[in-house]
Amino acid sequence: MTPTTQPQLIDRFGRQVTYVRMSITDRCDFRCVYCMDEEMTFMPREQLLTLEEIAYLLRAFCELGVEKVRITGGEPLVRRNVDWLFQHIGDLKQTTALKELNVTTNGSQLTKYSDAMVAAGVDRVNISLDSLKADRFRDLTRTGDLATVLAGIEAAKKAGFKRLKLNAVIMKGRNDDEIIDLAQFALDNEMDISYIEEMPLGHVSHERKESFYSSDDVLAELNKVFDLQPSISKTGGPSRYYQVANSKNKIGFISPHSHNFCDTCNRVRVTTEGRLLLCLGQEHSVDLRAVIRSHPGDIDRLKQAIIDSMVIKPKGHDFDLNVQPVLFRHMSVTGG
Ligand code: SAM
Ligand code: SF4
Questions:
Q1: 279 and 316 in contact (C-beta within 8 Å)?
Q2: Is residue 254's pLDDT more than 90?
Q3: What is the spatial distance between Cα 20 and Cα 268, in angstroms, rounded to a whole number?
Q4: pLDDT for 1
Q5: Which residue's CA is the closest to the ligand 2 atom numbered 4?
């Protein structure tokens, strides 16, 4: 079939939206200290988009020129029948602008799902890993088991994804002594790694200002050990990359505080309950679930609502660690 695309998602600042990050659940089997409170109240199930609604919504986006979809959460792989969803989104590559289907996961279910994900057309997987010490891993995730995640990483390597990348959030006094070990682990496993600055999203049980560790400080640590050259490669995301000398792999930094990435922002997010967020750091949003449920099957109306939303995409965000929290929604709702 010929791909049917009408690339029309251009905002007031001339930025074309080609990338959608879709959160498919706010639930998670971990409770990472920077992401969630120990006690979380999750959304009632009827508020969540169904898997059919998610597939339908993503079809609308991809018919409007979206080339890249990332499935995230919460923990996306704890959503029941998630393999059905991957299959449906993977099929959009045949009929729409979609070129790349990616997933962000904590790795706990990768032994179960890696093969099915590759078969469905999942291209790239980002796996969060903040520590290589079992006790500390448990402390940081509150419930996670390091051995399970390491087994998941092995399964993902064997399954043959196009690219695997690690994500590590570095927190002062919690895991900053593992910056080098995490990079070495990534390189030994022929994976890239991105270091993420902690973002003030939602209430958590520590003072964000005290745990904040900047990407520049991570880079300074890494430079003591590795020969890093700034890389020109772009992934369409907010990462800055460095090529590691004598290696195929790269080290990246996602730093919303120190390096503003809004000028080239090509992305939007959709929350678990179908709220289209035009910016991670602002509240501008459109209720797409209401459109889907009040006009079932009318995909043109849904597409028009998405096109109309482009006028409220703000110029940029303005995170400030002195105001805590900046936004009341947790990353698990927004989709990281
Ligand atoms: N559960 C999956 C995982 O952990 O990879 C996907 C969702 S998680 C919200 C996506 C990414 O956001 C993870 O890499 C996580 O480390 C990161 N994250 C969560 N809360 C964050 C925060 N407050 N600041 C920076 N990164 C955060
Ligand atoms: Fe769960 Fe991912 Fe948040 Fe950790 S970062 S609590 S794994 S959603």
A1: yes
A2: no
A3: 5
A4: 45
A5: 32
Where do the domains of the chain lie, and which CATH numbers do they carry?
A: 19-334 (3.20.20.70)
Q: Quick one: pLDDT at residue 13? A: 87
Above 50 in pLDDT, residue 66?
yes
| Better-predicted residue by pLDDT, 319 or 104 | 104
Mutation choice for ligand 1 from 22, 71, 169, 280, CB with most ligand atoms inside 8 A: 169
Confidence of residue 281 (pLDDT cuts 50, 70, 90): low
Between 88 and 233, the higher pLDDT residue: 88
Residue 54, token pair as written in the block:
């998610």
Quickly state the pLDDT bin for 11 (edges 50, 70, 90): confident
Ligand nearest to the CA of 72: 1
Q: Which residues line ligand 1 (CB under 6 A)?
A: 28, 34-35, 72-73, 75, 104-106, 128, 167, 169, 196, 198-199, 201, 331-332, 336
- In DSSP terms, 240 is beta-bridged to 253
What contacts 127, CB < 8 A, 6 or more positions away?
Answer: 105, 106, 107, 110, 149, 152, 153, 156, 164, 165, 166, 167
Is 74 a pocket residue for ligand 2 (Cβ < 6 Å)? yes
Tell me if 166 sits within 8 A of 150, measured CB to CB: no
Helix (H, G, I), strand (E, B) or coil at 167: strand
pLDDT of residue 326: 44
| Nearest 10 degrees: Cα torsion 69, 159, 116, 1 | 60
Torsion angle, alpha carbons of 169, 171, 175, 178, to 10:
60
Do 143 and 31 form a contact (C-beta atoms < 8 A)?
A: yes
Q: What is the pLDDT of residues 121-153, one digit of tens each?
A: 999 999 999 999 999 999 999 999 999 999 999
Question: How large is the greatest C-alpha to C-alpha distance in the chain, in angstroms?
Answer: 58
- Give the DSSP per-residue string, 34-47: TT--SS-PPPPGGG
R_g of the chain computed on alpha carbons = 19
Which residue CA neighbors atom 8 of ligand 2 most closely? 74
- At residue 230, what is the residue type? P
**Residue 327 pLDDT greater than 60, yes or no:** no
Alpha carbons 222 and 226: distance in angstroms, whole number: 6
